[in-house]
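Dear V.,

Thank you for sending over the compound details. I've combined the ligand you provided, pyridoxal-5'-phosphate, with the protein sequence from our construct and run the structure prediction for the complex. I'm sharing the raw inputs here so there's no ambiguity about protonation or stereochemistry in the SMILES, which I know was a concern on your side last time.
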Amino acid sequence: MQAFDELVERRGTQSVKWDDLATRFGRADVIPMWVSDMDFPTYPGIPEALAERARHPLYGYTTKPPDYATVIGGWLQRRHGWQPDPDALVHVNGVVRGLATAVASLTEPGDTVLVLSPTYHPFRDITEHQGRHLLEVPLVWDGTRYVMDFDAVAAALETQRVAAAILCSPHNPVGRVWTRDELLRLGQVLLDHHVLVLSDEVHCDLIYPEYRHIPFASLSPAFASHSVTFVAASKTFGLAGLQTSVAIIPSATLREPFVAMQDALGSGLVNTFGIAATMAAFRGGDRWVDALMAYLAETRDLMLQYCAAHIPAIRPVPPEGTYLAWLDCRALALTDDELSRWFVDQAGVALTGGSDFGEAGCGFQRMNLAMPRPVVEQALAQIAAASSRP
Ligand SMILES: Cc1ncc(COP(=O)(O)O)c(C=O)c1O
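Below is the predicted structure of the protein with pyridoxal-5'-phosphate bound, written out as structure tokens.
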């Protein structure tokens, strides 16, 4: 049995993924493969750091440790070959909060924000709920993978004034790890039109062995100074409940209004446990992440082979990064609501409906593979059984 094969009981821990099943899906007895949250016990250095911090019985307002920038920069350098200027690092309480703060401080009400769809659904909330327009430019399926439609992006920028673009890199839900050429081409067209780039790189450590993540801001000084990048230990190490992330804002012209907006919103305070966990992760979690990705790569391959052999009606898009699988279920010929109900009621698995990610996701479902492999195998067997029933 491999380390990641152990299933730890999470019910009763106020886990959104497990304890909200009945509320969200109408049934608690399904395999939860929806929200992007891992079921693996984290890197042991993290609970050790948390236990040590918890032993000190004072939990007042907390500041960043002196080696904050060195440790985070060291991780980014080791993992992605990019060491941002220490002054560029701004603590944020979660990536979505950071993106919302960037939209609030660096764009104006009525402005348009571009995304490549289908895409992570909170991007819609943080723009439209703040009075910005969301412009979705669909990704294109080229027969083997999703690619950016540069002509459509350029055409959109010619016809409307776009203030910012939210880049999801790697891309949730389609699992692309954007290549250097793709990022250079997209970045150039955006910069030519003075579009600010908000690069959500929260999945950047979850890259399958044959791919490489390129931080957008690492590509050139101009890209760096026209962008805000978000990273965190949260997806990589399963720390989402600690809501601790980093915004990297090399340009002082962008950083100052961003920080002023954090002050205006009363956000940006350091969570005592979140910072302890993040520092422990980025100090010593390298080998744990390497082992995690090797395990997830085997699970991904198993899922791809299993679907090809036993569930021909469901065609998974091979992910290059993230532990999320984007499943093309259009051959089942069901509406989106019917499809989600089919997975819950017939197969006993809870997935995320594709249309949550925009129109471009209709007919698809997103499956979270970050579970012990025996559980993934069980889920696939249940889906196969459901799909072979008349
Ligand atoms: C692309 C992307 N951004 C942000 C988040 C959430 O980040 P946070 O919990 O730090 O707000 C997720 C979570 O699934 C995500 O997939």
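A first observation: The chain has two domains: 3-43+287-388, 58-284.

Warm regards,
I. M.
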